[in-house]
Model the fold of this input.
Amino acid sequence: MKVVHQNSFSEQEKETLWQLRNSEYPIQFGHETFQEFESYCNALVKTENYILIDSRNVIQGWAYTFLRDSEVWFAIMLNSEIQKKDTEEFY
Done:
């Protein structure tokens, strides 16, 4: 596994992040359409993104920071299949 600081994403990576967010966050925080997700991401201010990538180069997690009301906020999500597992299993 590796953590990568990345602030621009391909369409495929964005789709993966959208699916990850919808899978791991409560339904009321999900985005029904990809366009809603893109609008949400584009509205975030001063975003810094970090993705967790496994040995097959598949995104398994996403963390990001952003400004809201002049404060730094953050979100972290991990694929439920890797939660509570030793990272050694993924090398």
Q: What stands out?
A: Residues 11-24 form the longest helix (14 residues). The CA atoms of residues 39 and 83 lie 28 Å apart. The helical segments are 11-24, 34-43.
